[in-house]
Amino acid sequence: MRRTPFGPPSLIVSDVDGTLIDGSETVRPLTRRALRRAAEEGTAFVLATGRPPRWIAPIAEQLDHVTYAVCANGAIVYDVTADVVLQSATLSPEVLAEIAEIARREIPGCGLAAERVGESAHDSATAPFVAAAGYVHAWLNPDHVEVGDDDIVSAPAVKMLIRKPGASSDAMAAAMTAAVGDRAAVTFSTDNGLIELAVPGVDKSTGLRRLAEIASLPVDAVIAFGDMPNDVEMLRWAARGVAMANAHPAARAAADEITTSNDNEGVGRVLHRWFT
């Protein structure tokens, strides 16, 4: 764990689930106040999440200064205010088909789904999330369209999701990382038997770099908050990486410091050092 002097930040970046919001999906008061004060002082704030753009609004509505989000673990750069996808990186149907075949071999009984991207959060021209029959959603708000196995891999996707309830996400990720090689990048944001595969080299840090170039955001003193393996690259890239007390060991190892849990306002407690 790195220990170097830092602050104040020039850019604040936060993961959402398990980090910015508590267990009831609420941004708590101390964190809201610190982020409001940061905005008043001209410090930009960006969400960096595994969530797709269509799941950003419930978070942005709790804050009054969210202009940009890096979604789908870095595969999508999204303008929240304008509701426009600025950039995306997708796996081709051919690669998706290869991944699906490998997944069925390496993780027997798994369910497959694909996250697609349109031009906005709710682009009616694109079915955003398609899943095979029997796919068990990892969250309480399933919004997928059930399709046949061939249809899952019939169009480009920002990520393929592999689901096996009750399995270890760590073990699933290890198996698929070894099997897919350089076809895709493997990560996960929950321990509950779900892994996500994206374009090689795509992660939250690369998405943030692309956003910084597009929006001319300062990256000289970035502070980033996260809790899971899909945050590791971002935590290492930031000048100050902060893991939550509830974080996965990989995120803790990548961070400069550990704050309190997401239910105990870990983000707000750190930002309160500079923004009161």
From TrEMBL:
<protein>
    <submittedName>
        <fullName>Cof-type HAD-IIB family hydrolase</fullName>
    </submittedName>
</protein>
<dbReference type="InterPro" id="IPR023214">
    <property type="entry name" value="HAD_sf"/>
</dbReference>
<dbReference type="InterPro" id="IPR006379">
    <property type="entry name" value="HAD-SF_hydro_IIB"/>
</dbReference>
<dbReference type="Pfam" id="PF08282">
    <property type="entry name" value="Hydrolase_3"/>
</dbReference>
<dbReference type="GO" id="GO:0000287">
    <property type="term" value="F:magnesium ion binding"/>
</dbReference>
<dbReference type="InterPro" id="IPR036412">
    <property type="entry name" value="HAD-like_sf"/>
</dbReference>
<keyword id="KW-0378">Hydrolase</keyword>
<dbReference type="GO" id="GO:0005829">
    <property type="term" value="C:cytosol"/>
</dbReference>
<dbReference type="GO" id="GO:0016791">
    <property type="term" value="F:phosphatase activity"/>
</dbReference>
<dbReference type="InterPro" id="IPR000150">
    <property type="entry name" value="Cof"/>
</dbReference>
